[in-house]
Design a protein that fits this description.
About 55% of the residues lie in helices and about 5% in strands. The chain is mainly α. Strands 2-1-3-4 form a four-stranded parallel β-sheet. Helix 7 packs across helix 12 (about 255-285) and helix 8 runs parallel beside helix 10 (about 205-225). The chain is flat, with a radius of gyration of 24 Å. The protein starts with a helix and ends in a 10-residue tail after the last helix. The relative contact order is 0.12.
């Protein structure tokens, strides 16, 4: 019975059977002029993001290969990478989402482990999704998805205002997380409080912000009444977070990544992109084209449209973000130190420029 099930799976799974030549495709020969550096990430969805990061550091000496950990049990996740820290080296790098570990600055065991690991890079922002949702890059996402470059919404202004609005409940969530008492204000509670149910783009989303603010005020009041003993310590905690770069205006970069992407940014993008598409179609209808030429114009426009989520996941216009610059400096320092070590080992001529 088990053999029949396996045979059936092999028929439906191209990677479970051999190719016409008798075996699966083999990787191309490695460039032996460069040292191979293995880079392990948390999951398959992170491979493309970190590939884009390391593409910014192409050099004649090191070749980076991004993958999930290559063990037989196919492990994934941050905890798996944390367990690999003792094995990490200049030839084996680990890349993880920061979550709150950067903000906690050594106040928790995991934070000390992540921030102290020599060969582990982290996002500084909560996760890769926060970089993809960097506010100054979102207009370009709309353009690529709709092929309409008209500015009808200020994403930077809105997300700064949104961040200030949710800041009080964000403090509750991150403070309780540091105390390992997330039941005080769970991720589900936080998500339900800060998610966008809709976006009214009139007045750059002010009505939507007012709606979120009412939700936040009710929640903040309830938490203050239930946990009044935490109010004063949270003020000192907020000052520590400020020293790490968190301001009310940048809260969105440090909130849970999937909540930001799925329940805030995609809601915004879908609304704005729909308006842009309607504008483009209205322009085509207002033109003098008729008959076949009109149908071709509509067809060409529709065929040029792209999935908003796919464009967002491919977004690489976050390089001006201050948090990306911190990550960039970490990788640059690592490369300089590794190249210097290769010179000492005689694998690179000493007079070769870094």
């Amino acid at each position: 019975m088990a053999d029949r099930i396996i045979d059936k799976l092999l028929r439906f799974t191209p990677f479970g059977s051999k190719t016409e030549s008798g075996e699966l495709p083999r990787p191309l020969p490695m460039d032996t002029t460069k040292e191979l550096v293995e880079v392990f990430v948390e999951g398959y969805e992170d491979v493309a993001f970190w590939r884009g990061i390391f593409d910014h550091f192409t050099n004649p000496y090191l070749r980076f290969e991004i993958s999930v950990p290559n063990r037989e049990d196919l492990p994934k996740g941050k905890k798996v990478l944390l367990s690999m820290i003792p094995r990490s080296s200049a030839r084996l790098l680990l890349c993880v989402d920061s979550d709150f570990d950067y903000l906690f600055d050594g106040c928790t065991p995991q934070s000390r482990e992540v921030n102290g690991a020599q060969f582990m890079f982290h996002t500084y922002a909560y996760a890769t999704e926060n970089h993809l949702c960097y506010a100054p890059s979102l207009h370009n996402v709309c353009v690529k998805a709709t092929k309409n470059d008209t500015h009808i919404f200020d994403f930077e202004k809105f997300l700064a205002a949104y961040s200030c609005t949710i800041y009080p409940v964000f403090l509750w969530y991150v403070y309780s997380a540091q105390l390992a008492s997330e039941n005080i204000f769970t991720l589900v509670d936080f998500k339900n409080t800060v998610q966008l149910g809709y976006l009214d783009i009139a007045d750059n989303g002010q009505k939507t912000l007012d709606w979120v603010e009412r939700n936040v005020e009710r929640c903040d009041k309830r938490l203050r009444e239930r946990h009044f003993e935490m109010v004063q310590p949270m003020k000192a905690f907020a000052e520590k977070l400020h020293c790490r770069g968190l301001t009310p205006e940048t809260t969105y970069l440090y909130m849970q990544g999937h909540t930001l992407m799925d329940n805030v940014v995609l809601v915004m993008l879908q609304t704005v992109c729909e308006k842009l598409r309607r504008m483009s179609i209205a322009k085509i209808y207002a033109s003098k084209k008729r008959g076949v030429a009109f149908k071709n114009e509509i067809s060409n426009f529709q065929n040029a449209q792209r999935s908003i989520r796919d464009v967002l996941l491919d977004n690489e216009n976050y390089t001006s973000s201050p948090l990306y610059q911190l990550l960039r400096q970490d990788i640059r320092t690592y490369i300089e130190q590794t190249v210097a070590q290769l010179k000492q080992e005689g694998k690179i001529p000493a007079n070769t420029p870094s």
